[in-house]
Structures are given as structure tokens and as C-alpha cells.
Specification:
The protein is of the alpha/beta class. The longest helix has 17 residues, at about 100-115. The chain is globular. Strands 1, 2, 3, 4, 5, 6 and 7 form a seven-stranded parallel β-sheet that branches. It contains nine helices and seven strands; from the N terminus they run βαβαβαβααβαβαααβ.
């Protein structure tokens, strides 16, 4: 059977986002989420749910969002603004030094682990790993950690697999914005699976959440997160996927390459 991993990005961004993601997991079709470590209060939110989300909670590596880095800003000068925080958007990142990315992401990973989480999969906030100065570090970490990594396009998927890393066969990024309906969700899923074999695994990115005052303050994408919960919990979506012969899965549903991971040991 074809499989769809529906991943909720931005876990730990705010209390309301966490509540919405948990609702979409309990009552809807979301089977995985990736956590940010840099928002204020993120560590407490992650720790509170670490046991309940074991095997379904990955890491949402950050170089954007306006948050402070894990490492002292002076240790990662190419990654921060004059105020000592990450730039808000991917386009605002300067020429990022690979070693600084590597050390900062390792610090984020170490922090996640200190919250009781062994990440089940990985991706990045604002898809910063699409940048040519960032992707080599992402590729290196994906191969070293041996966990599924988000590939945003076929070329990226091929590069990950060539390095012995794990990724889905295709990625749906367009369930976002204004057209948040069950029909649109099923249309995106059908289009993604159409050219793929019956054994394919597709990842769909989503952003469910409850709009709280903090989310309204820091993000324009707030009320739409509430609409996502409704779609992801919709009987129409559940039935539509079943009619397509698509089962939902978590990160465990993404198979390893036949030749295995080059270095499956844990990061030090």
C-alpha cells in the first residue's frame, strides 16, 4: 500500500501550536511532528511531551525565525544579525559558514536530547537546507544520524540517497495558505502519488495549531493553523485517502535504502 507521512512542523513554537498539533495527532491523521528548540519556552514544551511522542517527534533545525541561537552569537557570527539572533527569513541569511551551521545544529540536537527526545526524523525551518551553503551540512547530518530527512525535490532526494540517507519518495509543500479544504488536500495527495509506484512513501508538510496571543504576535500564519486542524481531522480526508489506497504512517514507514546508511551511529 502507498503511504503518506503527514508531518506537523513547528512543534514547541508556542503553547497553542503544541495543543493544535497534539489535537491533529489524536483526532486527525498527523503521525509525526518536528520540534523547534530555539523559541522561548521550547525546552519545557518538548520535555512535557517527550514520552508521549516517542518515535514521532523529530527535529526542526533552525537558522531563521528571529530566535537566539543555541551557541553564543559570537561563536556563530555568520548565522546571526547585528542583534545576535537568527534572521527572520531564509532569504535574509548571509553567507553561512558550514562549520558554524554544523556546530549550531549539533547544539540544537544536544538540547533536544537533553529534553528526553531521540529524534525520529529531521527537517529545517523555512527549508533553509535548500540553500547551497547549507545543504552539505544537512546531508552530512542526515547520513550520520540515520533518520529520515526531508527532501524538498527529486534532486535533493537523490543526493540524500546517494549519501546513504533516508527520505520519502516525494514531498508535498502546498498544503499551506488560503485554500485549506479537504478537497484541496486530496487533490495534492493524488497528484503526488500519480507518477509513483504502489510502494511509494510521500511526506506532506502541515502547520496545525491553536492561535494563542504569542502566535498572533510572532506569526502572520495563525488563524490558518486552526483551519488546518479541521481538514486534517476531516472524515472526508480519511475516506478519500482510503479510496486512493493510501495509508498514513509515521517516520518508521519510510524505508531505509537497500544498501543501508553509511554511518548509522548516533551523533557525538
Amino acid at each position: 500500500m502507498r503511504r503518506l507521512m503527514i508531518n506537523a512542523d513547528d512543534f514547541a513554537l508556542t503553547d497553542g501550536v503544541c495543543r493544535g498539533i497534539l489535537q491533529a495527532m489524536e483526532h486527525g491523521l498527523v503521525r509525526a511532528t518536528t520540534a523547534m528548540t530555539r523559541p522561548v519556552g521550547a525546552s519545557g514544551r518538548i520535555t512535557a511531551q517527550a514520552a508521549a511522542l516517542r518515535g514521532r517527534l523529530g527535529i526542526h533545525f533552525q537558522l531563521t525565525g528571529g530566535h537566539a541561537p543555541c551557541l553564543p552569537p559570537g561563536d556563530v557570527p555568520s548565522l546571526v544579525t547585528a542583534e545576535g539572533v537568527f534572521p527572520r527569513k531564509r532569504m535574509d541569511i548571509g553567507q553561512a559558514a558550514p562549520d558554524e551551521i554544523r556546530r549550531e545544529w549539533q547544539a540544537q540536537l544536544d538540547l533536544l536530547r537533553s529534553c528526553g527526545v531521540s529524534p525520529s526524523h529531521m527537517d529545517t525551518h523555512h527549508h533553509v537546507h535548500k540553500r547551497p551553503d547549507v545543504f552539505p551540512v544537512y546531508l552530512e547530518m542526515a547520513a550520520r544520524l540515520g533518520i529520515p530527512a526531508r527532501a524538498t525535490n527529486p534532486a535533493m532526494a537523490a543526493a540524500l540517497r546517494d549519501a546513504g540517507a533516508i527520505c520519502a519518495d516525494a514531498f508535498i509543500t502546498d498544503f499551506f495558505g488560503k485554500d485549506l479544504t479537504p478537497g484541496r488536500f486530496l487533490e495534492l495527495a493524488a497528484a503526488a502519488f500519480a507518477p509513483l509506484p504502489d510502494t511509494a512513501v510521500v511526506e506532506l508538510m502541515c502547520h496545525p495549531g491553536r492561535n494563542d496571543p504569542e502566535l498572533s504576535r510572532i506569526s502572520a500564519y495563525n488563524q490558518a493553523r486552526e483551519r488546518e486542524i479541521a481538514v486534517l481531522s476531516s472524515p472526508e480526508v480519511r475516506q478519500g485517502l482510503a479510496d486512493m489506497g493510501v495509508a498514513v504512517c509515521g517516520p518508521e514507514g519510510i524505508p531505509r535504502p537497500a544498501r543501508g546508511v553509511r554511518d548509522g551511529g548516533p551523533a557525538s
